[in-house]
Amino acid sequence: MVSKFNPFTPGTGHVPPLLAGRAAEVELLTNTLGQLRGPRVRRTKLLVDKPLPPIRICGPRGVGKTTLLSWLNRQPQFRDIRIIWHAYLSKARPTDVPLRSLLFNMFRELSALERFMGSKALRAVTISMENGEANLAYERMAEFMAAKGPLLMAFDEIPHFDLDSLAAILRTNQRLIEEGYPLAMLLIGTPGLDAHLRKADASFIDRSTGMYINLISDEATRDAMRVPLEQEGFAVQPDALEAMAAQADNYPYFTQVVGAAVWDAMRKSGHKKVDVGIVEQSAEKAESRQNELHYDSYGMLVDNGLLYHSRRVMDLLESSGGSASPEVVFNLLAEHCTEEDEGGPEAILDGLQLDGLIWTVDGVTRTGRPSLFRYCQEQRLD
Ligand SMILES: Nc1ncnc2c1ncn2[C@@H]1O[C@H](COP(=O)(O)OP(=O)(O)OP(=O)(O)O)[C@@H](O)[C@H]1O
Ligand SMILES: [Mg+2]
User: Fold this and answer.
1) Contact yes or no for 236/228 (Cβ under 8 A)
2) 129 confidence band (pLDDT: 50, 70, 90)
3) Which of 89, 91, 101, 130 has the most other CB atoms within 10 Å of its CB?
4) Binding site membership of 222 for ligand 1 (Cβ less than 6 Å)
5) CATH number for the domain that contains residue 235
6) Atom 25, ligand 1: residue with shortest CA distance
7) CATH number of the domain that 363 lies in?
8) What is the number of alpha carbons within 13 Å of residue 61 lying toward its C-beta?
9) Is the CB of 250 inside a 6 Å radius of any atom of ligand 1?
10) Domain range holding 345?
11) What is the pTM of this model?
12) Is 252 in the pocket of ligand 1 (CB under 6 A)?
């Protein structure tokens, strides 16, 4: 039975019908949350086992970082773990107190525990806030919540966080984690995440667990589109699936764009068999979305003054079979970096990885999303 609603989810952080190709990440997150429920010392309520290192999730735009968080948030098996999820802790005006929005978020979560609302600890939080001591208010609130039971604090879009607030959060949370409170911390962001954490004096960063995510495998790409279509009662022909995979480029966001376009075409056609003809009919929609994205990504390289560097790195990768050692890439950037390149070669590298033009993992830098790489190469021919 074909449902009325398109099952695919081409949108920010929307949990897809099949979370494809993220088994290792799901396992790590599941284990971490499981450890939060570990045995605790009866008197202090602190965890008996050793503290949990914070987890960093870093990847280019649109590869599913926020989706991992939305997925966790929805799992009934974690219902007993309180999740504080906060994005965009920024300072738009000099008078803003960014921690206020986080505290508000925590209060809202806590209101489910009304019986504690009148407690002394919460009054202390309010007083600190009224005295303009936002850091102290956060410290009290975080300790109070972590003492109540398993707590996951997830911060998304970290590279946009106000540095002073981020430093205060990290300092407090790290102390609580080290003392054995049942608190886990996820730090999420695009490339630039690590640099921003370092700027916030996050000395534990080298001891935290890093998950660097990017494109999904060929098999996962096909599964992400095939499984939901089959669940909707469609039969997907092998050559149709190949045509869809070629459009999706192993890019998680695109599996949803392509899947959604095919599903629409199927609904209109009234057929049950997804064949190459249908995929071709629906291709235009997906392609135009893809071109918009490429246009934006390329525009970003231009706006951020990265065109020159991106071309040098693309040439290097092309002439060396698609991959190079990160040191060679870094040296190339360092050699041609000028005073105008704010943040030096590190920041240039983050800029080139932001949309996945190139990607470094397991000690190798490679060409990134194939269609974006091609698009950027083509622009210089025009
Ligand atoms: N594992 C996956 N399988 C299939 N689709 C996925 C997967 N992960 C994410 N998606 C889809 O990809 C799209 C982008 O996901 P998401 O917004 O989580 O990316 P992001 O990495 O947080 O990007 P940004 O850096 O822009 O915030 C969404 O439409 C989501 O449904
Ligand atoms: Mg996101």
Assistant:
1) no
2) confident
3) 89
4) no
5) 1.10.8
6) 61
7) 1.10.10.10
8) 15
9) no
10) 304-379
11) 0.94
12) yes
